[in-house]
Amino acid sequence: MDLTDLIPGIPTLLVELEDILAGLTTVACLEHMKWLGAFMCITPVQKSLVGAATTEEEGFRLVERQRPSLLVVSQRLQEGTGLSLVERTEALDPAIRTLLIADDANEDLVREALARGCNGICFESGLFMPALRVVAGGGIYYPEPVAAVLRQQPPVAPIEPLTERERVVLNHLMLGLTDQRISQELVVSPETVRTHVKHIFQKLQVDNRTKAVVKSIAAGLINLESALEARTPVTG
């Protein structure tokens, strides 16, 4: 996979990530010390990191003690599993965002991760930084292998078709943008964005943004890769 074209966008991504992580706390639980070391070298992460571990029990003790905003965990750990840690974290405090780094796009793994409440699933061959940015920002990072599993569920169509503008807003919700940031990108007022979100909820018959995004992915209405490609980050 040639990722050379992504290099020019890294400085902007780091600026945006620092803005998102400001005021948040992060716990990392990764199998290998080299992964932990690389993770801790990301400047915006350094400022938010409150704990790091390599086993499930160590990771959960950190989560219990620190109650972080975000948990980044690998599928495999030196002891225990990342999926179990995600499940325990979800049971402890559903407000903690979870990003799972998985070995591969195994369908059974994806189903387990979804069932246990992962907010994002990043495969080792995927793009970690965009995944971190989306999940930390409150979005849902479900790349194509995850979307494919969701689409296998019985489709539930909206009670009324979404407008093109509403689908654009949904893409931004998936990426974790606030109403204010969406209004900047669409050059409309935050109130207009809130109206779009209200209509989306009504049409999809959901009561929060996460449910709206997951239901829309399952119905094939939105796509993570297309949303990431289309978006020009706002850094101001």
Secondary structure: number of strands: 5
Helix content: 40-55%
Give the strand content.
5-15%
Structural class: alpha/beta
Rg: 17 Å
The third-level CATH topology of the largest domain is: Rossmann fold
Major sheet attributes: 5 strands, parallel
Q: Could you tell me how far the N terminus lies from the C terminus, measured between alpha carbons in angstroms?
A: 31 Å
In CATH terms, the superfamily of the largest domain is Response regulator
Would you mind describing this structure in some detail?
The protein is an alpha/beta fold. It has two domains: 147 residues, Rossmann fold; 67 residues, Arc Repressor Mutant, subunit A (Orthogonal Bundle). The chain contains 13 helices and five strands. It has a five-stranded parallel beta sheet with strand order 2-1-3-4-5, with helices on both faces. Helix 9 packs across helix 11, helix 9 crosses helix 12 and helix 11 packs across helix 12. The longest helix is centred in the last third of the chain and has 15 residues. The radius of gyration is 17 Å and the shape is globular. It starts with 9 loop residues before the first helix and ends in a 6-residue tail after the last helix. The model has no long low-confidence stretch (mean pLDDT 87).
